[in-house]
Design goal:
Elements: H1 8-23, H2 27-31, H3 45-49, E1 84-86, E2 94-96
The structure holds iron/sulfur cluster.
Amino acid sequence: MRDQNPNPLRRRMLRMGLAGIVATPAAPLFLAPAAADERMSEDDPEARALHYRHDVSDVDHEAYVEGQNCANCQLFSDPDASEWGPCEAFGGRHVSASGWCMAWVERV
Ligand code: SF4
């Protein structure tokens, strides 16, 4: 049988397009946002950007003022949480009550 499409680049592009159509319905499975109750990792890029640490005793940042911690931060949205609670700066992912990051805001 004679090849209807002798251009190898075009043939490859058509195959890639078909693969994209097949993969599209599965994309949300891979792009789902992090679960809100997921614990924040210190290695997460967002945590690194804000110098988040689980324990204030590990904080070495000029913006840190003694006494500040996640439990007394306005963005710690469950003040009744004693150990880990949701942080608005990290999309609701949980941070340690005794942690800190440079987005700390005094609870009012
Ligand atoms: S924004 Fe507040 S609660 Fe969130 S990690 Fe920073 S200090 Fe902790």
